[in-house]
Write a sequence for this structure.
């Protein structure tokens, strides 16, 4: 089991905050983030996270740019994906806090790319550098948005209908009829990201000129298939990489939302409130304050339903909390920091996604190789054949079908 990895990132002042001559109420030291009360500066509250990124002033010695955020979080999650785990990175914060910049960045500027394009680029870099002839890779991507509690396919914008969310008894929630496109290079995936971003719902509010009005989920299904020439068997590991850019929580008094913007904001806040309830319930379960059999309201929102496996399930998960440094956003920033502090307590039960029989065969082959070395070192090579069947029978786990005789024979000649 592993806990959700949590990072906090503070952005520079925007035009609105600069015009109002706002003061900075956020300070960071190491992995600790401190927020100061705007009127009573002596009052402060500190939070410890896995990472605290100071992106407020580029001239500061401890400034954290896009590459640093990726190196700490994106690269680690990509390594877990190559190991065969499901992984998820999601950004949370108030509207205009810098979530989309952290996740997507500025595609037109190479040095300003976010976690999603940097992860995709390194994924294909690693695939290209792979020299093992027995190993092949395949990559499929999908891109969707949750707009007013309805799912839209961003890679098929002409489809007017809303997609339905279903739940598989083993694989968990999924979106029915969602486009899943095969890609063979970073150029392919970059083109699809660009097309999807053009279709995403954005609008201007008083707090953000390009406010995301929907939650966006970019999913990569990464399959590694290995063909073992010694045994003639093929095994595969499938990893699901979920990269989530949440819409920001907002206050009507600050955004000046009316009409459609007001309706969108209400739906955004409702789904984020449900996400908060889910995180609070899972945190209490992980700390032992709540029984594991108690109800968790995943289905109260489409967002939490789709993120069910990533929140306390079969996934290695990281959360990036984006906050504003301004005193006028003190309440929202404090709420985000508390939110992130609760998320840090959630424990996930990630497992490598591979066939149980394939896993057993791989472990037995490793054990056979180790025993060969021991036997050769002791000069007992002739006893290997009589010892192997007993070893296999001893290591047979419950719930896994017996290994066929032909596979045992192949193991004996390894």
């Amino acid at each position: 089991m592993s806990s959700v990895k949590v990072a906090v990132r503070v952005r520079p002042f925007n035009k609105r905050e600069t015009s109002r001559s706002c003061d900075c109420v956020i300070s960071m030291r190491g992995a600790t983030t401190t927020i100061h009360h705007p009127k009573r500066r002596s009052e402060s509250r500190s939070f410890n996270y896995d990472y605290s990124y100071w992106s407020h002033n580029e001239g500061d010695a401890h400034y954290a740019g896009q590459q640093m955020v990726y190196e700490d979080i994106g690269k680690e999650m990509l390594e877990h994906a190559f190991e065969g785990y499901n992984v998820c990175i999601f950004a949370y914060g108030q509207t205009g806090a810098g979530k989309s910049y952290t996740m997507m960045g500025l595609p037109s500027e190479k040095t300003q790319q976010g976690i999603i394009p940097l992860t995709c680029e390194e994924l294909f870099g690693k695939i290209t550098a792979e020299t093992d002839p027995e190993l092949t890779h395949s990559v499929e991507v999908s891109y969707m948005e949750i707009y007013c509690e309805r799912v839209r396919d961003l890679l098929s914008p002409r489809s007017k209908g809303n997609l339905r969310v279903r739940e598989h008894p083993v694989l968990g929630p999924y979106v029915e009829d969602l486009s899943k496109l095969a890609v063979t290079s970073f150029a392919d995936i970059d083109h699809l990201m660009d097309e999807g971003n053009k279709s995403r719902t954005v609008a201007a509010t008083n707090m953000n000129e390009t406010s995301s009005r929907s939650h966006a989920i970019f999913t990569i299904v990464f399959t590694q298939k290995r063909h073992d020439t010694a045994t003639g068997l093929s095994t595969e590991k499938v990893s699901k990489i979920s990269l989530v850019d949440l819409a920001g929580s907002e206050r009507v008094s600050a955004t000046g939302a009316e009409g459609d913007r007001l309706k969108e904001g209400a739906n955004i806040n409702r789904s984020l409130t449900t996400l908060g309830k889910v995180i609070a319930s899972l945190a209490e379960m992980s700390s032992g304050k709540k029984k594991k059999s108690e109800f968790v309201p995943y289905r109260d929102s489409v967002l939490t339903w789709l993120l069910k496996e990533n929140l306390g399930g079969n996934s290695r998960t990281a959360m990036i909390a984006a906050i504003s440094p301004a005193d006028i956003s003190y309440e929202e920033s404090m709420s985000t920091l508390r939110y992130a502090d609760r998320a840090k307590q959630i424990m996930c039960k990630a497992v490598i996604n591979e066939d149980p029989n394939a896993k057993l065969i791989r472990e037995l082959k490793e054990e056979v190789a180790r025993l060969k070395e021991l036997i050769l070192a002791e000069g007992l090579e002739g006893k290997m054949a009589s010892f192997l069947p007993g070893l296999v029978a001893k290591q047979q786990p419950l719930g896994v079908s017996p290994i066929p005789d032909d596979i045992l024979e192949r193991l004996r000649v390894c």
User: Anything to note?
Assistant: The CA atoms of residues 372 and 384 lie 8 Å apart. The chain is about 35% helix and 25% strand. The first strand starts at residue 2 and ends at 3.
